[in-house]
Specification:
By secondary structure, the chain is α/β, with parallel strands linked by helices. 41% of the residues lie in helices and 16% in strands. Helix 13 runs antiparallel to helix 14. It is globular, with a radius of gyration of 24 Å.
Amino acid sequence: MCGIAGFIGAGGERILRTMTTALAHRGPDAGDHWVDEEVGVYLGHRRLSIIDLGGGAQPMWTQDGTLGVIFNGEIYNHAELRQDLARRGHVFISDHSDTEVLLHGYREWGEDLAGRLSGMWAFAIYDREAAVVWMCRDRFGEKPLYYANTPSAFVFASELHALTLHPSVSPTISPLAVQKYFALGFIPAPGSIYREILKLPAGHSLRYDLSSRQVTLRQYWDFVLEPQERDSLRAEDEYAEELRLLLSRSVKQRMVSDVPIGILLSGGIDSSAIAALAAKHNSTSIKTFSIGFAEKTFDESSYAQLVAQTIGSEHHTDRLRGDSAIEIMTEVLKRLDEPMADPSLLPCFLLFRHVAKHVKVALGGDGSDELFAGYDTFRALRWAKLYDRLIPSRLHDPIQFVAGLLPLSHRNMSFDFRVKRTLRGLSAKSPLWLPSWIGPLSPQELREVMEVRVHMDEVYEDVFLQWENCRQSNLLDRTMQFYTKLYLQDDILTKVDRSSMMHSVEARSPFLDNDLVDFVRKIPGRYKLRGDKTKYILKKAVAPMLPDDVVNRPKKGFGVPIGQWMANGTLPVPVELNVDRLLRKSVVRRWSQDHLASKSDHRSFLWARHVLDRFLAKPDAGILDMS
């Protein structure tokens, strides 16, 4: 796992070194640069040594010096690709570096290399003969890659703050991006918080031609749900058996490392399955890690302890308390390169800080909720359909008013929270149910609080696109597509990448394995959501390995008691912040006062507001352009 930075065009080696140094947390073990001032190509790399510790230094070049690469990630099928390439006549210098496989793979297959890779990656290959730089990002966007095509230079980096250190990039904060942030809690690719900077979307590659200075994007893979029925009477058992086998293979493949590995264990079905399979594939006791909360309704550490005892792991637990949350929050938000409103970033940061004391690589269960319909919102779908069909729109506001009279509770997933949040979503049209349920603000609230006019078609364009492009017309599959193509990429995986890399830990996600995903996307939806039972087929597949209390307990999610911390003063809620120049102050003041008085629950908005304010307060945050 590493950090990459570079540019083509105006600049110099000092600028490159400054950019690369800003990524030192992503690669504390080594760093190097390659410069061709005559052509104007600058490549920088920071390395976290995981595979081939002695032979994987970067930038790496072919023996003839025509192809060079800087690479962030892991290629899990590099051994198989190496064997294939060796049979085709390619000669390798390193012992088992996955980086070198990229060079020979590009020489053999060109840009079709992307479709042959299994892993997580963001890399840039400089082809000196063709005078192009080819960049690529993995299928789901586990590894980040930002770029800016300015009049004087094409600049790219693993993180925004490194990219903005290039003098040709004068970032201005986009009002549309701010609105998307408050609507969704994150900023979907290809956009970023800045007008001038883009994210290379997941499953895409980019070709930059040095002669014409043209940028060409290509989508090499897309997540498509294609449910296929099986005629066998044992279809359910067959699905479960094949799923268990594919997940086991994926875990085994992701345990290949030249440094110690641990498992992130929340006590939920996803991470527990990963831990059980990892223990099966390891000859010695594995290390498992979890985070607990002082607030009991948010704490799931007892389930993690139960799984650890079952599989015989060496278990480590840290605990997040309100009095330590402020310290962690200050550090996290200071280092966060782009605002994201997911408060679980705090325990995630603490978890990886804890992990870093013991191992450099950790496996987790990310991706399972999206692929197997695991979120509570999936349970709400059939009630939402019924409500939408039977309740006239003129009654939505009165019903919401009555629901607002329910006593407010800050318990994790409390009854009043679920009722109010569900009704809030149903006041919008069906494509906007999901962002209304998970985002800091509903469409109606967004209009109410934003100082500038809100164009809903622009704010929710990414949501509408996924809704319309889903090949299946049913609500379940459209919901899975939303979660997998938007929420997973730009919230979950971004959160995991940033929090793990802040502590120089590599996080791996077995559920995102190529073969496993290609299998799961063909499983009919009724095997994923059965009645109110989420992840039905996954639970059936892993049940033999885990305690029944873990398999069948209700999902809570990685909740964080920010509402309670705000209400009791642990997390202050200032009446006015600098960010409020973007917002209607009267509305912000009313919402803040109502939350502190326990009249209404505005935790999501107030947290998102705080995060954005801390981002805007940074010296290098950029210019805010309200036009």
